[in-house]
Write a structure and sequence with these properties.
By secondary structure, this protein is of the alpha/beta class. It contains 16 helices and nine strands.
C-alpha cells in the first residue's frame, strides 16, 4: 500500500476532529484503532498526538483522560522537534469544548476508509498465498480483515475507562436568572438536564418559564420556546416585558422603547406554537432537526408545558402516557445536548397551599424520576395580592434540596425574584419554621433520587 494513501482528501478540520474523537470516545477508539495506521494522518503533529494515546493505552491498559494527555504533551515529547511539540500543544489547547460537530459522520467516514485499506492489504496478502496455501488459510486472512473495526459497543469498561471516570465533565450551566437558585444547583441549568416547575393553575408556571428563557437569551444562547397553550405572539410579548421591564399593558404604547432594549440582546429566540395535544416528542425532534439544518443550533428548549404534549403511544392510564413523555424529553435533552425546562400541574391540594411538595403533583408522580431539578411554585390568594409567593426546591441532583425560598412575582411585567431565606425572628418571614419542617418531612418520605 502506498504511503500517500491518507486522510489528506478529507481536509485538516476533519483530521483534527477525528483525533479529538479518538481521545474523548473510548468505545470509538477501541474500534477505530484496530484498523488505524499513523500514516493515514497527513499532519505529523496529529500523528504524534494519536501515538501518545496509543502508547498510553498499550502501557497502562486503560484509555487516557484529558489530564494524562495534558501531562504527556507538557513533559513527555522530548524526542520531538520543538515545532511539533508546539503544534501538538496548540492543537490540544484549542480542542473544542464538548462534543465534536458531525461526530457520527466523521466516525463513519474514517472507519470506512481505514477498513477498506485493511481489506486491500488482506486481499494482496491472499493473492500471495494462492499458490502455496489452503483455502481455509486464505479465508481466515480475509475474514480477520473484515472483523477489524467492526461494531464493538460494549459500554463503560471498568478498567479501560478508569481515567475517564475521574475527568471533570463540564455541564456548561446556564444561569436561571436567580443567583440564589444558581448557587444551589452548581451554577445553573446544565447540558443534558431536565428541569421541571410544579405549580397549580394560574400560579405563574408560564411566567417562570419565560423568565428562564429570557435569562438564557440575555446570556447569548439560542432558545426554543414551544407553547402548547398560549399563542406565539402572546409569549413573545411576555419576553418583551420580561427583558425590557415594561408592563405588558404598556408594551404597544412604548414599542420603540422595547425595541431599543431587545435589539442588542445577544441570543436568539424561536417561539413555536402547537395546538394543545397535537404535538408529540417526535414532533419536537423533527422541529429541532429542521432548525439545525437552517443553522440554528438550540442550546435551551422550553416546553409550556409537557403535560399538554400528545403521547406517542396511547395507554389506558394517563399516568403511563405522562411518564413516557417526560422520559422522551430527557432523551431529547441528552440526544441534542440541550438544557430542557418544562412545567407540570399540581392536583387540587396545591391550589391554595403555602408550600407545595411533590405530594401535590398531578396524575403521574413517576414522571419526575427522570428530572434533574424540580422546584415548586406556590402563591396563595393573599400572596397574589401582595406579589409574594414561595419556591420549594423539591429535587436537585447538583446540590441541596428541601429548601423554601420566598419570591417576589409581579405578573404585570413578568418580574420574578427569588429572595434570601428570612429569619423568623425578624417578623418578616413568609412561613413558619413548623410549616417548612412539615413540608420537608413530607418530601423526604417521597424523595426522588
Amino acid at each position: 500500500m502506498s504511503d500517500n494513501i491518507n486522510f489528506g482528501g478529507f481536509g485538516k478540520t476533519f483530521q483534527q476532529n477525528l483525533c479529538q474523537l479518538i481521545l474523548e470516545d473510548r468505545v470509538f477508539a477501541d474500534r477505530f484503532l484496530e484498523v488505524f495506521s499513523e500514516n493515514f494522518l497527513e499532519l505529523k503533529y496529529l500523528r504524534v498526538f494519536v501515538k501518545s494515546i496509543i502508547d498510553y493505552r498499550n502501557r497502562y491498559n486503560i484509555h487516557p483522560g484529558l489530564t494524562a494527555i495534558r501531562t504527556i504533551i507538557n513533559t513527555g515529547l522530548e524526542d520531538q522537534p520543538l515545532i511539533i511539540k508546539e503544534q501538538v500543544s496548540d492543537f490540544f489547547n484549542n480542542m473544542k469544548d464538548g462534543s465534536v460537530e458531525d461526530s457520527d459522520f466523521i466516525k463513519e467516514k474514517a472507519l470506512d476508509f481505514c477498513r477498506k485499506q485493511k481489506l486491500k492489504e488482506a486481499m494482496m496478502k491472499s493473492m500471495a498465498l494462492l499458490d502455496n496455501s489452503s483455502y481455509d488459510k486464505i479465508s481466515k486472512v480475509i475474514n480477520n480483515a473484515l472483523l477489524l473495526g467492526a461494531e464493538n459497543e460494549d459500554g463503560h469498561d471498568f478498567h479501560m475507562d478508569f481515567d475517564l471516570r475521574y475527568e471533570d465533565r463540564p455541564r456548561n450551566p446556564v444561569t436561571t436568572g436567580w443567583p440564589i437558585m444558581d448557587d444551589i444547583c452548581g451554577g445553573g441549568h446544565g447540558k443534558k438536564e431536565l428541569g421541571v416547575i410544579i405549580a397549580p393553575t394560574g400560579a405563574g408556571k408560564s411566567m417562570a418559564l419565560v423568565h428562564l428563557g429570557a435569562s438564557a437569551v440575555k446570556e447569548g444562547l439560542n432558545v426554543v420556546y414551544v407553547t402548547l397553550e398560549l399563542a406565539a405572539d402572546v409569549v413573545g410579548l411576555r419576553f418583551d416585558s420580561c427583558i425590557s421591564g415594561i408592563q405588558l399593558g404598556a408594551l404597544k404604547r412604548r414599542k420603540k422603547e422595547v425595541y431599543k432594549v431587545i435589539k442588542d440582546i445577544p441570543g436568539q429566540l424561536k417561539i413555536k406554537e402547537y395546538p394543545t395535544k397535537s404535538a408529540t416528542t417526535n414532533t419536537l425532534r423533527n422541529y429541532i432537526e429542521k432548525l439545525i439544518r437552517h443553522d440554528f443550533k438550540p442550546d435551551v428548549l422550553i416546553i409550556d408545558y409537557a403535560d399538554l404534549l400528545k403521547p406517542i403511544s396511547s395507554s389506558s392510564e394517563k399516568r403511563h402516557e405522562l411518564e413516557s413523555i417526560y422520559e422522551d424529553l430527557r432523551g431529547i435533552s441528552q440526544e441534542y445536548e440541550l438544557r430542557v425546562w418544562t412545567a407540570s400541574q399540581t392536583n387540587r391540594s396545591g391550589l391554595n397551599a403555602e408550600i407545595i411538595t411533590m405530594e401535590a403533583i398531578s396524575e403521574a408522580f413517576n414522571k419526575c424520576f427522570v428530572a434533574d431539578f424540580i422546584f415548586t411554585l406556590s402563591r396563595t390568594i393573599e400572596d397574589r395580592n401582595t406579589n409574594q409567593g414561595r419556591v420549594f426546591i423539591a429535587k436537585n441532583r447538583n446540590g441541596p434540596d428541601g429548601i423554601v425560598f420566598p419570591i417576589f412575582m409581579d405578573t404585570s411585567n413578568v418580574c420574578i425574584k427569588v429572595l434570601p431565606k428570612q429569619n423568623e425572628e425578624s417578623g418578616t418571614t413568609m412561613e413558619s419554621q413548623s410549616e417548612k419542617l412539615g413540608a420537608y418531612k413530607m418530601f423526604q418520605r417521597r424523595k426522588i433520587r
